[in-house]
Amino acid sequence: xxxxxxxxxxxxxxxxxxxxxxxxxxxxxxxxxxxxxxxxxxxxxxxxxxxxxxxxxxxxxxxxxxxxxxxxxxxxxxxxxxxxxxxxxxxxxxxxxxxxxxxxxxxxxxxxxxxxxxxxxxxxxxxxxxxxxxxxxxxxxxxxxxxxxxxxxxxxxxxxxxxxxxxxxxxxxxxxxxxxxxxxxxxxxxxxxxxxxxxxxxxxxxxxxxxxxxxxxxxxxxxxxxxxxxxxxxxxxxxxxxxxxxxxxxxxxxxxxxxxxxxxxxxxxxxxxxxxxxxxxxxxxxxxxxxxxxxxxxxxxxxxxxxxxxxxxxxxxxxxxxxxxxxxxxxxxxxxxxxxxxxxxxxxxxxxxxxxxxxxxxxxxxxxxxxxxxxxxxxxxxxxxxxxxxxxxxxxxxxxxxxxxxxxxxxxxxxxxxxxxxxxxxxxx
Length: 429
Description:
By secondary structure, the protein is of the alpha/beta class. The chain has helices at residues 7-16, 26-32, 48-55, 77-92, 96-99, 102-117, 130-140, 161-170, 186-196, 219-228, 248-251, 298-301, 309-325, 327-345, 375-386, 411-427; strands at 65-66, 124-127, 148-152, 173-177, 201-207, 232-236, 255-259, 271-275, 351-353, 366-370, 388-389, 391-393, 400-403. Helix content is 41%, strand content 13%.
């Protein structure tokens, strides 16, 4: 097919750009190296054929359209290969001599994370996921009665419920800025947080991109506000890490958290916690064990005992893969697919959309109510009958269906989803 590129040719496409290290794994090289000569023009300027070749770096069947990146992404083939290779190596040979090579690989992942986020390896802690990272901050700061923590109502439970529960134990107060729907704009939230912050506020903590309806918060402006008032700023990046071209040197938070299993398309149970050098003296470790990191803050804060280095090495491969695709292009691709989805939903009678119609206030998470249809039954029908995977949102807070497309999805898949929703909205499920 003219629009399709084999995996071997995609590997060679990247190798042509100086990225042969991505495919240095012997298993990968045996399968994909040294065959074929047809090479796509490098980069997304090649258009849809390029993105088709990107899609071929995931093992999902071509007929399965999964748009649930806000919950769980498939691992990219480079990440999956690295995970299998390193796990098998330790299982075949768990000797100290074989495992000794994993420490430098772990540190290479730390360096890769630092480059990806534009900070230094001394400021990176490798965790299991965003929830663990967030709780390390809420457990590790020395807060007491009389102190306040300022949150956004639409934070994830690990960045909302966790603070409330710890306030019961340590006596500090929690102040919550209400969410508004639809997203009222960055200026509204900067003003709302400025009015809510007080001299007692020690921490300001928000979710960068909400998992509920995809509201994008003004991270840089809120970080500057917290800094100007002498408060720490925690930015929950579960929905921005691997989706947005996040530049922490520009945003300047004190803490940033993220997970590998979502938008980075890495292995499960691997994450990141960034702790700025200025904030490090104020954060206490909450786990004391063996095998710390080798540089900076990880020497005293990352003694978590036996780890699964294979997941960390897989994350490094996933980040390399995204970098070679192009992070700005990846973000634009996800935004374009979301705009296509939003425009299509607006044409289907009976749909109530919770996500902002303003493109600058969202990224790649869309939540909506499918009229009077049962959301669970519709989601089941979409998967069973149409091979489309999305998720539902229950409860009282803007329930319905949630769709979160990523760079491995295609415009054709979005069109399939829209056509199927229109069909069920008309005929029922």
